What does this fold into?
Amino acid sequence: MSIQNEKQIQWYPGHMFKSMREIKEKLKLMDMVMILLDARIPLSSMNPEVLKIIKNKPVLILLNKMDLADPYMLNQFIAHFNDKGYETLAIDSTTRKNVNKIYPAALKLLDDKIQKQTSKGLKIKAIRTMILGIPNVGKSTLINALSNKKATRTGNTPGVTKAQQWIKLSDSFELLDTPGVLWPKFDDMSVAYHLAITGAIKDQILPLDDVCHYALTFMQAHYIKRLAERYGISKDMTFIDMLDHIGKIRGALLKGNEIDYDRVYRIILTDIRGKQLGGLSFDRI
Ligand SMILES: Nc1nc2c(ncn2[C@@H]2O[C@H](COP(=O)(O)OP(=O)(O)OP(=O)(O)O)[C@@H](O)[C@H]2O)c(=O)[nH]1
Ligand SMILES: [Mg+2]
It folds into this structure.
């Protein structure tokens, strides 16, 4: 597999510097922050820069897109974050599963502060929180789910939200939608592949043959039954064998019955990103 030189990968566009600066500026107004992670890759989607800047703010971790994750791994990750002391919920923002548990979790997180206000006879102020997360993880979809209307624009591509936007859910809950941010340097190429597989970075950024090589090899190791059921792929097949096989059974052929590899890559990624291969998780603990 030809891994591209990291320097060539333009996955940290200039506007993210600006978004990060604006997040830092607004942080002091927040009672708490919600970090939205992709339930399929809770470790790879955790922005280390965000963890650095939030310091002692109360944090609610939300594992979004739970419907697309491997349920067994999802439970492991919930336990993992709970062990680290984080209040954690798994949610599906498109069907609103567990979205109604967010406000009670926020109240629990801010219990001490609220008790202090009430004991002093003060009026309880609205909880102000910002939603932070990588591009395309579902921040705006979650805000719409919480507010029960289309308060902010969403779309299945990174970079839909361009600027911060306040959304007042009620007199007691105010949210700030933020543009997705990544970080300038990945420690590990597998993180970059996880972000590409799940759609946090655009498909033009990493070569799709490398992304599919990573994805199919990972699935051979962890989800071989799913590959066998969907495509008839076995554990001992090479990457090229798998591509040729998928190309043939799905009719992704050029003139002269040559395999149309570009179409095969699209088929694989579409199947992985939809639910065609079942719930999948690419991080391991
Ligand atoms: N299956 C599934 N899809 C989701 C979920 N939440 C969001 N999506 C989809 O993910 C895509 C991205 O959603 P957005 O809400 O625009 O993501 P965002 O984090 O605001 O993205 P940026 O503004 O680009 O940073 C959309 O196609 C949503 O429908 C979920 O829980 N499950
Ligand atoms: Mg958005």
